[in-house]
Design brief:
The structure is a homodimer.
Chain A: H1 8-18, H2 35-53, H3 57-63, E1 66-67, E2 73-74, H4 79-88, H5 107-141, H6 144-156, E3 159-164, E4 180-183, E5 188-199, E6 208-217, E7 228-233, E8 235-237, E9 243-246, E10 249-254, E11 265-278, H7 284-320, H8 344-376, H9 380-414, H10 427-437, H11 444-455, H12 462-477, H13 485-508, H14 513-548, H15 554-571, H16 574-582, H17 587-591
Parallel strand pairs in A: 3-6, 4-6
Antiparallel strand pairs in A: 1-2, 4-5, 5-11, 6-7, 7-11, 8-9, 10-11
Keywords (chains A, B): FAD, Flavoprotein, Oxidoreductase
Organism (chains A, B): Microvirga thermotolerans
Pfam family, one (chains A, B): Acyl-CoA_dh_N
């Protein structure tokens, strides 16, 4: 049975020592999150994930969801109780403003909890995760009536949410979507169409399901400028808030997927279902983007989460499995063989995952803190800078953390040899579950195009310049610090490569946009390497300072520094290859005739 | 339903134009393989794979194998008939010497067929594949009586073979194995023990199953020097060759695996089963290595095979799926959107797979031709050089082609977006099936250690020096050729990196073997890049020559050159990163205390 222990200590190190969360005390909700409260919340969240969510992970994979002839869907055994434990603990509204029934705590805490939940049980964690995304969208774009009707029930978890974008013929290219909305004359609309790949579209965890649906109002312009967003509940809601008639939306079938079997991935049929407009007519994509951006960050976290839980299990196996002897002679001569963690190739593999995980966690929290600033600061300049950061880093977090997260799950599985391929050990599930994170909420190629095609040039490159300035300033400030030399020098080099790549796009992609398209994925990963390297440099600085204070943390901080050193030595050199690929340009890529592929 | 078309044209280009197979006409069996015969054989093999094996691939995945209470195992529907078509066509003995009932054709042809079979249906192809490996081991190490008893039936495919190495507590470290053999006094032995992960251990395709089993003869030395190899048939064989009593070996259970569901992966229980020694007492590993080396090359081919079939399906989808518009404006303005193959990121992904596949196929055939020389040449020097090549390249082919093959299957799946995650499309199966190739026949970390720890220094580095000389000479000879500049220059640089890495090991790994262990995987991939780059340089040269001859092949040869250019520009730069990682050494990797992982 796979193990999982939530990395609480690492999170408190990041929040307290690296990012000094107390500096954010002026933001609403942060003053309540004193170190004691924070620790208590994390401990409680860890317990829920370790003891309630994690034991159901394999159950969910084996059982999957079942659709019955009447269109209802049953989730795997135990999911209902676990979901109830989640809602009873108030986790759904952890960072939802108090006026909507939440606790108003930092959204950063919610990101931490998302990691723990997704490590413990990705398929189960998706039900509340989607609901939180829908809540965020309704808070920003819902009318007062919609907020009043849906938010309290969603925040308490009695009702869950979904996002309905994809149709059989369109996923990425939403301009092609066909679902239509016809005004009923009473302010509501009749929604008709088919949506596919709808996670948590139908299930037995909640009394009602609140679908956010993209559709085209009769007569709307073609393309993306004619798409509106609607709220379509499974059960209509009466004036007094009680549930009324069943709405004309139902689950037509469940998909058979490679993984996340515990989550119901539905084909949803809308057959004149009653819906209400969210936000403005024809501005649906804009409204949905609140949910999508939220979801993209959460999916990045899922990538990290699978990497983390796969790593923990690989470490446990590597300490336990006896096979062969250390190259430098037996380490445990009294045993028939040494545990495989003595082998350099095993250690290298494990450290490459560990070094990624710790930096990725830092990147998530750094970005989440910026999210809190963007939403809660009273200072416009601060809000704008934080929002720039969010926009720029969202595709990087989504794309890089899921690509690497999957790779790492595969590497962790590899540590088990043949046993890794056997389902009973659970490593295959981590790989199969992790695989979806590279695809949903915008496949990673789309994230790369979002970064290169939209985010880089936005506002005259303000966001990316600010990122370069921050990293550059850090390097400059710490250039003289001998103890940080192993971190600053490779970071500086990586930053140089990233700046050269950016410059190359400016010079070569304006006239030939294919040059940007052909380099986008490498650029996204180059950006990710520099961002992760920067996180390591900051963690190293904080670890050195913490170690100097004493308090018996020397061993832990030394391990941190060693892990960081491994990252700088073994992962950062990749920046050179990424740059080299980008600057070869698109000629060879575009010249091949279609029929010769 | 996934598509598959065997790449016959690419194979004939390699055999005729790149490797000039007619130069091998002095070897036994090669003179029979005239261009016409070759083409006829490949066409026939392609047909079997495309029309019989491929349509059963998904069936096998869905149905899997079933073990009945009496220990018998049923394979998926249609497998029996397909296997019969294979044996009826004489494919099992394609390259087996005529004296044992085979056709004596080049083993190189068998490698080609292995690729086609593994692309079409990996799980089904494993049954004959293991049989061929067992045949090879028995030819080299079996006594006359054993050869007479088993080989004819195996070559005709009436009986299949297996290899039994792994036990629950030992896989890589065979020195720990416990299965025991007690002499029966009549020349036979009673074999007792449990073997796990035995592919094709029990099934309904053949009348008898011939297990090759590693076990320890009573009183044998501990460790690897006390292991012997035995042949243990499922049914004992009477003097007249007819089947006798059921032997004391049975399938205890089937494993539930991530993929290759159509192949029965068995726990095999030996309960005093009667077996006969193959080769010398206590030299069982030596005898088994014939089968393992054969199998390692075949598994490398399987990696390529999954990459190829996944690629073909991704191309078909990319030409068909309409989504978005080309960055340079609509390419099909009359359609609602352009096919996604217009997008640079999609093309980049597809080309990276294609460029690998074509070079990997060349590497396989180059190595297979060396195998034929090693086994068939009458010249001792030629045999020795070819054998050196085989020893050096076997871990590279196995490790690199399977690591990349899996990565490529993942990339191809990514082209399908959400549809790639749905089992119906078949892309998930390619990924799940490809995953085993990185693990079995020695996990890839073991291949890397074999290369760095055994093969590099063997015979004073004779094999690796000869490889460097060959590639270096090619670069020198063609340095002045302007048309090859884009190939020779990056190859030369990659070779330089590989030589530096080799030198670094010589200087730093003698005293500290961990430096070799921590760099082994990167070294294996660096070696693979140079080997694949060399294949591209040779293919480019052949393509230019062929194009110059006319004959209407210009378009195909231009595509070849473009694909090669893509490889040199986008894949070769990785050599620098690999070298940088290797030369950081093992310090950071080895310093981490076990409890801090």
């Amino acid at each position: 049975m796979p193990v999982y222990k939530a990395p609480v200590e690492d999170v408190t190190f990041l929040l307290n020592d690296v990012f000094s969360i107390e500096r954010y005390n002026n933001l609403p909700g942060f003053a309540d999150a004193t170190p004691d409260v924070l620790e208590a919340i994390l401990a409680e969240g860890a317990k829920l994930c370790e003891e309630v969510f994690a034991p159901l992970n394999r159950v969910g994979d084996l059982e999957g969801c079942t659709r019955h002839p009447d269109g209802t869907v049953t989730t795997p055994k135990g999911f209902k109780e676990a979901y109830r434990a989640f809602t009873a603990g108030g986790w759904m509204g952890l960072s939802v403003p108090e006026e909507f029934g939440g606790q108003g705590l930092p959204a950063t805490l919610n990101s931490v909890m998302q990691e723990f939940l997704s490590s413990a049980n990705l398929a189960l964690g998706m039900y509340p995760g989607l609901t939180q995304g829908a809540i965020a969208a309704l808070i920003v774009h819902g009318s007062e009536a919609i907020k009043r009707t849906y938010l309290p029930k969603m925040v308490e978890g009695a009702w869950t949410g979904t996002m309905n974008l994809t149709e059989p013929h369109c996923g990425t290219d939403l301009g092609l979507l066909k679902a239509k909305a016809v005004p009923n004359g009473d302010g509501s609309y009749a929604i008709t169409g088919t949506k596919i790949f709808i996670s948590a579209g139908e299930h037995d965890l909640a009394e009602n399901i609140v679908h956010l649906v993209l559709a085209r109002i009769e007569g709307a312009p073609a393309g993306t400028k004619g798409i509106s967003l609607f709220v379509v509940p499974k059960f209509l809601v009466n004036e007094d808030g009680s549930l009324g008639a069943r709405n004309g939306v139902s689950c037509g079938s469940l998909e058979h997927k490679m993984g996340i079997h515990g989550n119901a991935t539905c084909v949803m049929n809308y057959d004149g279902a009653t819906g209400w407009l969210v936000g403005e007519e024809n501005r649906g994509l804009n409204a949905m983007f609140v949910m999508m951006n939220e979801a993209r960050l959460a999916v990045g976290v899922q990538g990290l989460a699978q990497s983390e839980v796969a790593y923990q299990n690989a470490v446990a196996y590597a300490k336990d499995r006896l096979q062969g002897r250390a190259l430098t002679g037996p380490k445990f001569p009294d045993r028939p063989a040494d545990p495989i963690i003595v082998h350099p190739d095993v250690r290298r593999t494990l450290l490459s995952i560990k070094a990624f995980n710790e930096a990725a966690r830092a990147l998530v929290l750094w970005t989440a803190l910026n999210g809190d600033v963007a939403h809660r600061s009273s200072d416009e300049g601060e809000r704008r800078a934080a929002d720039d950061h969010m926009g720029l880093l969202t595709p990087v977090v989504k794309g890089v953390l899921t690509d690497r997260g999957f790779e790492n799950a595969v590497k962790a599985q590899q540590m088990f040899g043949g046993h890794g391929y056997i389902e009973e050990w659970g490593m295959s599930q981590f790989v199969r579950d992790a695989r979806i994170t590279m695809i949903y909420e915008g496949a990673n190629g789309i994230q790369a195009m979002d970064l290169v095609g939209r985010k880089l040039g936005k506002d005259g490159g303000r966001a990316v310049m600010s990122f370069f300035n921050e990293v550059g300033a850090f390097c400059q400030e710490n250039a003289g610090d001998e103890t940080l030399k192993g971190f600053v020098a490779p970071l500086q080099q990586g930053l140089g490569h990233l700046q050269q790549a950016t410059m190359w796009f400016m010079q070569n992609a304006m006239a030939k946009p294919d040059n940007a398209g052909a380099g986008a994925t490498d650029y996204m990963h180059l950006f990710g390497l520099v961002a992760l390297g920067y996180m390591w440099a900051r963690m190293a600085k904080a670890a050195l300072a913490k170690k100097a204070q004493g308090n018996g943390v020397a061993e832990r901080m030394d391990a941190k520094l060693l892990t960081g050193r491994f990252f700088m030595e073994r992962t950062m050199p990749e920046t050179a290859t990424r740059l080299a690929r980008i600057t070869t340009g698109a000629d060879a890529t575009m010249a091949m005739p279609v029929e010769m592929f």
